[in-house]
Amino acid sequence: MLSLSEIFCSLQGESTFAGLPCVFVRLAGCNLSCAYCDTGYAARKSDGVEITLAEIVDRVAVYRVPLVEVTGGEPLLQGQTPELVRSLLDLGYTVLVETNGSLDISSLDLRAHLIVDVKTPGSGMVDSFHQPNLACLQPHHQIKFVLVDAADFFWSLDFIKQHLIFLAGKEIIFSPVVASFQPAELAGLILQHRVRVRLQLQLHTLLWPASERGR
Ligand code: SF4
Questions:
Q1: What is the mean pLDDT of the chain?
Q2: What is this structure's pTM?
């Protein structure tokens, strides 16, 4: 059984797949508590409903969309998540898994497109990253830094430099928390420092700013 917060269809908004229709499977429960978290309603496993893997697959199929994202909360907190991801891949879906980076990703099927966060100081969770994950990253995996301010930008540059052996050639996403870090300021810093990262704005917050969930 898995604890499910919600399943819904929306536009993918926080990766190189941004803008594509996508079915989101949001699992309940998270081991972190980020300052900017917008999914507090899925913070505890008890916030979700118990559901079987087969029921999730059936509900995903209803939408007839080939792209599926398994997210949370933190999906790797649930023991059946690797099996869920593998099942979806075996059915022919393109599967994204969004993880906060604090747990071991090695149990996940390598065919999945992992979007792995590295938490910055502004998140309040800066020491959470599971360093061995770096060695598991594949060329199609993506690393995401959510930046609260310019200090987070410079911290992230240092992290990338320190771990360049693992991160060179990978897709690296810088996503600003727009309430505290203007996208134009981040764009200016990226250009000024000639950093090979992708500026990513959270699409759903631009399209549906008042929506709390299901988008
Ligand atoms: S890891 Fe994600 S779900 Fe968990 S607290 Fe941080 S932002 Fe929220």
A1: 96
A2: 0.96
